[in-house]
Write a sequence for this structure.
C-alpha cells in the first residue's frame, strides 16, 4: 500500500462519506458530483489496498480497515484545520471542541451551556452543528465531532451497534409533551387525554425518512392527518400558535414556546419518555471537551430544577 499520493481532497471526501452514510449525501454536502466522490473513494481504497467502506442497501459503513484509515485521516485533517485557524488568528488558548446536537437541544440546552462557557472560559472555542441522531453518531465515528447531544426513545437502545461502543451519559429524561394552540378546545385543561388525539391535525418533521412522523403523538391507532412538515422546532411552534395543528415537543421547549401555545402533558396511555444523551468515543476526552461536557450537564440539571414560585 502507498499513501504518498493520497490527496487531502480524498481524505475529506472519505470522511464525508463515512459521516453522511451515502455517496449521494456526501456529494451534496461537499458540492461535488457523485461520480467525483466515487473516484476519490476508489483512489483511497487503491492506496490502502483494501475495501474501506462496506456498501449496503441502506448506505455505507466503515470496515475494520476503514476505521484505521479514518482515525489517521482525522488526525491529518484536524491538524490542517488547526493550522489554518492559527494562521488566521482564530485559535483560542483553551482549544477547540466540535459539538453536535439534536435539533430540540439547540433551542434551550445548548445555548445555555455555551453562554455559561463564554463567561467561565472565554478562550474556549466551540464549533457546533445540528443534525439527526443517526447523522451525529456517524460524525462521531468519523472523527468530525468530539461530543454529540443525541435523542433517545424507549426502549433506549444504544444509538448504533458499532464497536467500540460509544460512551453515553443521560443529560435529561422527561415525558414528551404536546404543543396545543391556546384557543384549541384541548387547551382548556392542564393535560390532554390521549383518547382526544384521534382525528387531530398534526405538524410533523421531514417529508420522508426517519423524521417523517416526528411531531405526531406516538402509537396513534389511526393514520395521522399531517397538514404541515418542517424540521425547524420554532417554525412548528409558530404554526401551532397560528392554529394550524398540534405537535409533540420535549418538556424543555415550554420555556421558549411563543405566545398562543400551551405545552401540556398527555395522560391515558403509556408514558412517552424521552432522553437527551451526551455521547463521545471511548478514548479519554480532552480537557476542553471535558469543560463542554460539564457545562452541558450543568445546563441540563438547571432545566430539570423547578423554578421557585413567584412571590
Amino acid at each position: 500500500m502507498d499513501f504518498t499520493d493520497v490527496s487531502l481532497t480524498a481524505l475529506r471526501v472519505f470522511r464525508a462519506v463515512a459521516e453522511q452514510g451515502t455517496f449521494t449525501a456526501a456529494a451534496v454536502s461537499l458540492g461535488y458530483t457523485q461520480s467525483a466522490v466515487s473516484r476519490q473513494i476508489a483512489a483511497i481504497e487503491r492506496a490502502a489496498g483494501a475495501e474501506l467502506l462496506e456498501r449496503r442497501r441502506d448506505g455505507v459503513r466503515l470496515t475494520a480497515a476503514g476505521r484505521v484509515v479514518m482515525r489517521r485521516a482525522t488526525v491529518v485533517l484536524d491538524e490542517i484545520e488547526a493550522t489554518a485557524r492559527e494562521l488566521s488568528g482564530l485559535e483560542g488558548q483553551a482549544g477547540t471542541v466540535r459539538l453536535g446536537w439534536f435539533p430540540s437541544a439547540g433551542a434551550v440546552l445548548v445555548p445555555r451551556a455555551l453562554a455559561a462557557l463564554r463567561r467561565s472560559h472565554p478562550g474556549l472555542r466551540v464549533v457546533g452543528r445540528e443534525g439527526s441522531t443517526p447523522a451525529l453518531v456517524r460524525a462521531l465515528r468519523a472523527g468530525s465531532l468530539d461530543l454529540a447531544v443525541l435523542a433517545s426513545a424507549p426502549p433506549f437502545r444504544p444509538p448504533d451497534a458499532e464497536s467500540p461502543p460509544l460512551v453515553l451519559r443521560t443529560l435529561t429524561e422527561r415525558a414528551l409533551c404536546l404543543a396545543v394552540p391556546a384557543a384549541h378546545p384541548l387547551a382548556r385543561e392542564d393535560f390532554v387525554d390521549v383518547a382526544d388525539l384521534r382525528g387531530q391535525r398534526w405538524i410533523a418533521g421531514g417529508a420522508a425518512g426517519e423524521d417523517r412522523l416526528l411531531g405526531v403523538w406516538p402509537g396513534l391507532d389511526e393514520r395521522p392527518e399531517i397538514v404541515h412538515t418542517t424540521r425547524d422546532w420554532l417554525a412548528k411552534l409558530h404554526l401551532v400558535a397560528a392554529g394550524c395543528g398540534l405537535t409533540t415537543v420535549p418538556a424543555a421547549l415550554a420555556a421558549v414556546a411563543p405566545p398562543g401555545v400551551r405545552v401540556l402533558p398527555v395522560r391515558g396511555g403509556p408514558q412517552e419518555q424521552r432522553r437527551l444523551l451526551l455521547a463521545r468515543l471511548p478514548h479519554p476526552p480532552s480537557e476542553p471537551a471535558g469543560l463542554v461536557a460539564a457545562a452541558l450537564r450543568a445546563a441540563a440539571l438547571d432545566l430539570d430544577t423547578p423554578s421557585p414560585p413567584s412571590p
The domain at 8-84 is CATH 1.10.10.10 (Arc Repressor Mutant, subunit A). The first strand starts at residue 53 and ends at 56.
